[in-house]
Amino acid sequence: MFTNNQIFAAPMAGISDKPFRMMVRSFAPGIPVVTEMISCHSLVANHKNCLRNFDVYTEEGSVGAQIFGAVPNLMADAAKILQDAGASWIDINMGCPVPKIATRAGAGAFLMRNHKLAAKIIDAVVRAVQIPVSIKTRLGWDEEHIDWQDLIRIAADNGAKFAVLHGRTRAAGYAGVAIHPEINDMPIPIIANGDLKSGDDINNVIGHGYAGAMIGRAMLGRPWIFGQLLGVAGVPENIGDVVLKHLDLMIEYYGEKNAVPMFRKHLAWYSTGIPNSSEFRTKINQITDVNEIRQEILQFWGCVVNI
Questions:
Q1: CA neighbours within 13 Å on the CB side: how many for 200?
Q2: What global pTM score does this model have?
Q3: C-beta of residue 138 within 8 angstroms of C-beta of residue 171
Q4: Which CATH architecture has domain 4-230?
Q5: What is the pLDDT of residues 135-189, one digit of tens each?
Q6: Using one digit for the tens of pLDDT, what is the confidence trace for 86-96?
Q7: 117 closest CA partner among 162, 165, 151
Q8: Are 257 and 264 in contact (CB under 8 A)?
Q9: Is position 40 annotated as part of the catalytic site?
Q10: Third-level CATH fold of 239-301
Q11: Where are the domains of the chain?
Q12: Alpha helices in the chain (DSSP H)
């Protein structure tokens, strides 16, 4: 079996919020998790409409707080705020491929094209905090620019303690099959990310020289996957119990009005592959009342008890 420091829960925009992190923790308490990416501008400006700006990580366990931005001093200030909130380490997003981040904002994957700016950001963040700093990046901007090794060496030279490498280019987005090149002569540990779904996948990348694996889309609708990989938990006997617990956490965090529409995507993932799931998804997508959603969950997964 694997150990906690070998398997990470990936940062996923719109997914890796506090309720989801708590669900992961319920099956694998010691697993390191990473927050969804947080804008340094929003965090430093204390924007009230972004709940994750005010998360306190002290009681969550090992949480890496991921930030994105293109201004070194703002990234440093954001890192200090997250350190004070109890983050275990700071992760700098250098791989997000979406246009509003990677092109218009000059952040995320754009930093693979501007290594000087990447170095300044890493240096500023490392100097600002007393906790470890990592980067999460990709193979390169496109197939003609596979330069991940250069960026990771820059990260190491500027004080980063480890890196996460997603096995696709920025141009590929999330299409195609992730490629995990062998790791040789790298100055810091590298965690593999991309299309990793099983123990065999993790063993494969560790055999290629990676220090561990970061699970992303494979955890959607399966927050218990980390318990399975660690050998401490199996698939729940009644998934409906898990779904209701997750819904309650969403309501507590976001309030009923916002939680119900936000939870629909999770219901789609939880129900994937179950008979009549298509009809279930069609029905719940029309519901706005939390009690109606609960009744549909009860009916779809059968009689449940509290967990």
A1: 0
A2: 0.93
A3: no
A4: Alpha-Beta Barrel (3.20)
A5: 999 999 999 999 999 999 999 999 999 999 999 999 999 999 999 999 999 999 9
A6: 999 999 999 99
A7: 151
A8: no
A9: no
A10: 1.10.1200
A11: 4-230, 239-301
A12: 18-27, 40-44, 72-84, 99-102, 115-128, 148-157, 199-207, 225-230, 239-254, 256-271, 277-284, 290-301
